[in-house]
Amino acid sequence: SGNYTPTSFGQLVCNLYIDPESAIILKEFLESDYSPEKALLSICMTPDMTGFYVSQDDVGGVSAFLESMDIRKYDEDTLKAGKTAMVILDWINEIPIMEISEKYNIGAGDLEGKISSADWLSFALSRLSQKFRRDSMHEVDILNIRIKEGISSDIIPLIILPGIGRVRARRLYNSGLKTLNDLSESSISRISSITGFSTRLAETTISGARRLMKSGIS
């Protein structure tokens, strides 16, 4: 007597090092229709994510964002979560950090801290979806990558290459080199003509793409 055995859900929450209330909020989200905006709002509603301060100038835009998801009643905490979700949404849509900082009147360091927390919580959401909503796993995993790298989904195949961050990946994509296959068949001269690519980086980009394709990644 006196011995307690944790449920599989409780054990998973413990392993993820998230607040139990956060886990409940994320689990409830998985019971609804998926969208990146709703996922980010749920992440930002958790006690593990402290929301950004909402000024009077922010209220209109944040309210419109919440109402776009049919949230008509909201308190201060919901407004803070909404603003924070909007910030992370801009980040994964490749808006530069300084531009986001100026738009929302937040420090770059504060933004980076929120990105780190959102990365951790989106990973937790991925693990929870594996248990409770397997049909959403792929979408949640994509969101996790987007938060980690600050990218739109179209350049995910390029971001796995060594030396390629979100800026270089976007430049490759905009130059017509959209897949690993495109890169593997490209030339050093073409890639090195793109801003930010030296001859050496062009060589490693091509060889990296070929190596990944050979291993079955496309």
TrEMBL record:
Zinc listed as a keyword: no
GO MF assignments: ATP binding; helicase activity; hydrolase activity
Listed Gene3D superfamilies: 1.10.3380.30, 5' to 3' exonuclease, C-terminal subdomain
ATP-dependent DNA helicase Hel308-like domain location: 40-150
UniProt KW keywords: ATP-binding, Helicase, Hydrolase, Nucleotide-binding
PANTHER family to which the protein is assigned, alphabetical: ATP-DEPENDENT DNA HELICASE HEL308, DNA POLYMERASE THETA, PUTATIVE (AFU_ORTHOLOGUE AFUA_1G05260)-RELATED
Full protein name: DEAD/DEAH box helicase domain-containing protein
Organism: mine drainage metagenome
Lineage of producing organism: unclassified sequences, metagenomes, ecological metagenomes
